[in-house]
């Protein structure tokens, strides 16, 4: 059975690509648009998984799958490598490292070893840098480094948590979620100058920003009226539009590389599934 819900951005029904009932999050497109990569918790195990963009079998990516949680993956722009978070459990504490593997899930190795909680790796559009989140200086801040973890630079500095980074297609800016304005809202950071702007806010908790392929819009999940909707803001115009509305939760928006489709995660059927 094909599961559908209404996508307000295009007035079309959205197709469910998965239906296995497992929890899912951290949704990203493969650079060539052929598949999507996401986190799922299946049979008590958290892992990076992939599904074809047309739907089909869901498969674990990392091989051999370590017997520890791995999640929040992001493919490199050329599709040759995938960065992700690897939680090396030690007693009751998690030691979050950032790892990378080949596109086929082999040759997994640490690129940013654990100093604190190392999370949310995001390749720059040219593949030359990696943005990520760490608590190494006391709370969640965004950092920048080369893909091997060297030449680390701190990009944000605020007592509130900064997280969920997403690069603009031209590599000039990073959108992220932050509590620095009082409530959790989406901001943009110009990487070269450090200029910060609040993109939207004041209408509910906002998280998981994603850029359109032309760089003109940023979509994100906003919690309002008891559910998460997917909202987009047109840069420069500050115009908002609701792309996917409740009554259930729609989260983790991701624009396809060609800009023609929007992927997201919804719990409309009672379990979190990937929709297109």
Give your account of this protein's structure.
With 276 residues, this protein is mostly beta strands. Helix content is 0%, strand content 53%. The protein has no helices and 25 strands. It has strands spanning 4-7, 12-15, 23-29, 35-42, 45-52, 59-60, 70-75, 81-90, 93-102, 109-112, 118-123, 130-134, 141-145, 153-154, 162-167, 173-178, 185-190, 196-198, 205-211, 217-224, 227-234, 239-244, 250-255, 262-266, 273-275. A 4-stranded antiparallel sheet has the order 3-4-5-6, with no helix packed on it. Strands 7-8-9-10 form a 4-stranded antiparallel sheet, with no helix packed on it. Strands 11-12-13-14 form a 4-stranded antiparallel sheet, with no helix packed on it. Strand 8 (81-90) and strand 9 (93-102) form a beta hairpin. It is globular, with a radius of gyration of 18 Å. The two termini are 15 Å apart.
Please outline the major beta sheet: 4 strands, antiparallel
Average of the residue pLDDT scores: 91
Number of strands: 25
SSE sequence, one letter per element: EEEEEEEEEEEEEEEEEEEEEEEEE
Question: Summary?
Answer:
This protein is mainly beta and 276 residues long. The protein has strands at residues 4-7, 12-15, 23-29, 35-42, 45-52, 59-60, 70-75, 81-90, 93-102, 109-112, 118-123, 130-134, 141-145, 153-154, 162-167, 173-178, 185-190, 196-198, 205-211, 217-224, 227-234, 239-244, 250-255, 262-266, 273-275.
